[in-house]
């Protein structure tokens, strides 16, 4: 078995079959080739391409094979490499990486020798590095960086001297800076930022002078600034921090909490909950004192706040968890807002009536919003919207009938969607789409037959798509599928650029 010391190695499955249909074929031909024909999607790619089936995994060698249960997490794309956290045979949980292809993944550096491991987490790219939090056993949990080499993996700064550590969290990239919340003896819990160097790691602002703590939450990039919420004993305050590190307050409320901060162009939307059965949608411009309430929502709190084309999209209207009534006419559906009360409205009543289509997993790709929804007769499937009622429609009925394929874990990577979906023939497996039905197809079948591999955490790096999945229950591992959508076009003599 091919493995990375307990992490099953690459599954070499070339994306073929249906992809070739999308290269210059007339629309009528493409429709006929895909409508209800699962076998067409599963056809093998033509041409001299060496492939392995998902069940033919080679070993990387005796020194690289370990027991199952590596439990990879925190997949992130660095410069030319995939980085992740995993448990090795002897190292405990450490930082791993792979450049893909035929290379086996390996430990970047054994930061904390021994079975405890340094437990890397919150992996975040910044320039030529990937920054993360780890505990080497001497400094406690602190901020580290790596360039993919052991020599280039080092502590950024020991913020709180000693074994306790500053416990950085809420790592948020804004331009060339990485902001985070950390603790030290002198300042308590405050906001810090770094450019990846020790000299460039500094305290940004003391929201509560001295060692007293003030809770800081909701960190989000707002253009070239950071937005966040600071709580004290008597108020919640919305702040922003500019590139110079100067902080200013935008809105203060003596009651309630702020959450779901979402930047939409020069404006920032957020939700306020004051402890009633009503959630308030607010918006503020980039100047203090401009915050205003947009609209109240009853029932379930609005969710999946997403920016697209200078508009806010979100899900609202469903009944609350404890029975609070939502939109009794439309139920939970897709909404949009331009920041005004009159411009906050339903996009489309996908499932007419009070039940609602309950959209989930909203992602944006090329100015189009994609999500999973149910229309009442075709089950839960993949949908797309340009923000208008007429421009909101189902991409493809992957699993025919009322059951639906229930797409989950939707990710947009380099003009392609990757997600998990369930079919009666293959269970829940990895799928991909460029937003059109003729190029919506299953990537591979990891768990044999109708069993499900439950793929998640999709990351596209180079010509491969990495994700976590299990070929048998309770055996989740890191998998990679070669993904070359331009290849069939090149074979057909078409413009490969149109397949990217």
Automatic annotation (TrEMBL):
Protein name as catalogued: Lipoprotein
Source taxonomy: Bacteria, Pseudomonadati, Myxococcota, Myxococcia, Myxococcales
Organism: Myxococcus landrumensis
InterPro entries the UniProt entry points to: ELWxxDGT_rpt (IPR030916)
Ranges for region Disordered: 43-71
Top-rank taxon, per record: Bacteria
């Amino acid at each position: 078995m091919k493995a990375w010391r307990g992490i099953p190695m690459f599954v070499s499955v070339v994306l073929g079959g249906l992809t070739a249909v999308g290269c210059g074929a007339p629309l009528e031909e493409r429709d006929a080739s895909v409508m209800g024909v699962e076998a067409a999607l599963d056809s093998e790619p033509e041409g001299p391409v060496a492939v392995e089936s998902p069940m033919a995994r080679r070993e990387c060698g005796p020194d690289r094979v370990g027991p199952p249960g590596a439990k990879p997490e925190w997949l992130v794309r660095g410069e030319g490499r995939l980085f992740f956290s995993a448990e090795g045979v002897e190292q405990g949980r450490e930082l791993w990486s792979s450049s893909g292809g035929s290379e086996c993944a390996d430990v970047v550096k054994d930061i904390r020798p021994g079975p405890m491991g340094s437990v890397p987490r919150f992996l975040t790219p910044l320039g030529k590095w990937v920054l993360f939090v780890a505990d080497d056993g001497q400094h406690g949990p602190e901020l580290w960086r790596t360039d993919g080499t052991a020599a280039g993996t080092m502590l950024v700064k020991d913020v709180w001297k000693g074994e306790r550590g500053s416990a950085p969290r809420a790592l948020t990239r804004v331009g060339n800076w990485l902001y985070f919340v950390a603790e030290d003896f002198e300042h308590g819990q405050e906001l810090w930022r770094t450019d990846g160097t020790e000299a460039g790691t500094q305290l940004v602002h003391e929201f509560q002078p001295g060692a007293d703590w003030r809770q800081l939450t909701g960190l989000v990039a707002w253009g070239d600034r950071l937005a966040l919420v600071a709580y004290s004993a008597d108020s919640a305050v919305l702040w922003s921090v500019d590139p110079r590190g100067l902080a200013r307050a935008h809105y203060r409320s003596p009651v309630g909490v702020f959450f779901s901060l979402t930047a939409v162009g020069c404006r920032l939307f957020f939700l306020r909950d004051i402890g009633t059965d009503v959630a308030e949608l607010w918006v503020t411009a980039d100047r203090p004192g401009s915050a205003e309430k947009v609209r109240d929502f009853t029932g379930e709190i609005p969710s999946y706040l997403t920016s697209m084309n200078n508009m806010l999209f979100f899900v609202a209207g469903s009944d609350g968890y404890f029975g609070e009534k939502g939109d009794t006419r439309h139920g939970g559906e897709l909404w949009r807002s331009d920041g005004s009360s009159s411009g906050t409205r339903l996009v489309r009543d996908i499932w007419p009536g009070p039940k609602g289509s309950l959209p989930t997993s909203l992602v944006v790709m090329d100015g189009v919003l994609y999500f999973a929804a149910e229309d009442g007769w075709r089950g839960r499937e993949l949908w797309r919207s340009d923000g208008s009622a007429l421009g909101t429609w189902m991409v493809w009925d992957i699993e025919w009938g009322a059951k639906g394929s229930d797409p989950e874990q939707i990710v947009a990577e380099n003009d392609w969607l990757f997600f998990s979906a369930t079919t009666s023939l293959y269970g829940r497996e990895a799928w991909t789409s460029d937003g059109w039905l003729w190029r919506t197809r299953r990537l591979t079948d990891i768990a044999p037959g109708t069993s499900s591999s439950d793929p998640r955490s999709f990351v596209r790096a180079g010509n491969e798509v990495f994700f976590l999945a299990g070929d048998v229950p309770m055996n989740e591992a890191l998998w990679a599928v070669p993904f070359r959508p331009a290849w069939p076009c090149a074979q057909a003599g078409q413009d490969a650029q149109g397949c990217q």
